[in-house]
Every structure is written in C-alpha cells, then in structure tokens.
Amino acid sequence: MPMLRELTHRASARRRSRYVDFVSAVHTRTRRDYLRERVIGVDKAACATIAKQFGRDYWDGERQYGYGGYTYDGRWRPVAEQMAAYYRLKPGDRILDVGCGKGYLLYEFTQVLPGARVAGLDISAYAIAHAKPEIKPFLRRGQAVKLPYPDRSFDLVMSINVLHNLHNYELRRALQEVERVGKRHTCVVVDSYRNEREKVNLLYWQLTCETFYTPKEWEWFFKESGYTGDYGFVFYE
User: What is the CATH classification number for the domain harbouring 179?
Assistant: First the structure.
C-alpha cells in the first residue's frame, strides 16, 4: 500500500488519464483468418507453448506461432507521429518502450522527432538481436516487472500490445513500474473484448495472453494498481 499511495501522489501533478486510440489503424490493416490460421488443423496448445518462448518461431516463423515474419515496413510511423503530436514531445525528450520487440516504433520516433532520446526493453533476446540496426544500441533485455531505470526518468513511457502477456499478479507490478519511471506521460495498450464474438476471436487468435479483460475491468485494474496514465485497447472484431 505505501507504493500505491506514493504513485497516486506522484500522479497528482499529471493530467487525468484517458482512453486514447493510437493503434487501431495498424491492427486492422492485417487480415486474420482466426479459425484457419490458429485453430483448425493446428495444435493450439503446442503452438502457444512455442510462442511463449518469444524466439525465432514467434517473430519470424510460421503464422501459427506468431507474427509469421515481423519485418520493418513503416507501419508504425503514423503511430509515432500521432503520439509525438498528442503528447507534445520535443527534441531531447526521453522515450521508453516497454516490450519494444525489434524496436520499430522507437525507430520511427527518432525519425519524426529528431533529437529524441529513446530506450527499449524486451524479454526476447531474439527480438533485440534482430532489431533494426539503427535502434539496436538503445535496446536491452529485461522484464516489465522490474524496469532498470530511475524514478521519473522518461517523458513518455509506452507499452503497446505487451502487458496482457503477464499474469495479473505480474501485471500489477508492471503497471506500477511504468508509473514509477514516467515523468510526464504514460500509455499502455492491451487486448480486450466488448462482446462474446470479440472474446471468442481473441481466444482463437491469441498465443501468449495471460490476462485479458473487458474495458471496464481493465479500467478497474488500472485504478487498483495505481496506474494513472493513458490507455488503449485492441479488439478482435
């Protein structure tokens, strides 16, 4: 409870958290055949076990294990542009991506905001080893539940499509860590569902999720964890 009170106190100087949508356009540009690719004729449990290693199969293997090949294509540029404008970031600001993968979003920040100081952390050694070369020096391996950065050290802390891969007891700590290292702005995006169809589609498609809730449940969990930053959801319609 002392940490929760401290995080709440720190947040008092920030603006009120709100729902923001930065990623829907990226999410919906990829067509998904939920049944054919992840259910019919596939050992879903075996695929999920492999995916959760976050190695080559997850990033660059067959679609049944994850991305089916995650290469740079510029899809994250509009997201970086929107976030930079929304949060009024300026050259010299420090940006952290928790669960940065191959660093594509961070790379886009360096392009749309020259002079930005970026850092990325991911659990996947494979992703970091195969990150975009320009951004690789700023990435490190680590866990969201224990961020290796001082308090209030970043102007923007973001975590996109990552935290739902944690168990709820880990998720609470990760949200508190995001809150701790953020100085001005924080934003997390997680999988969610608004109805039974979206819930089924999410269950069909997901490989690595450990925690997923309805938007109202997520908002309750954010509050209970002491997280006061912005948030967004990915829906499987």
Answer: 3.40.50.150
Give every CB contact of residue 179 below 8 A, 6+ residues apart in sequence.
7, 10, 11, 186, 226, 227, 228, 229
Query: Mean pLDDT in the chain?
Result: 92
Measured between alpha carbons, how far is 141 from 184 in angstroms, rounded to an integer? 24
As a whole number of angstroms, the distance between CA 134 and CA 36 comes to 36
Domain span at residue 213 reads 2-29+75-234
Residue 12 clears pLDDT 60, i.e. is over it: no
Of 79, 85, 87, whose CA–CA distance to 107 is shortest? 79
Cβ-contact 178, 211 below 8 angstroms: no
| Nearest by Cα to 91 from 118, 106, 119, 113 | 113
Q: What is the pTM of this model?
A: 0.91
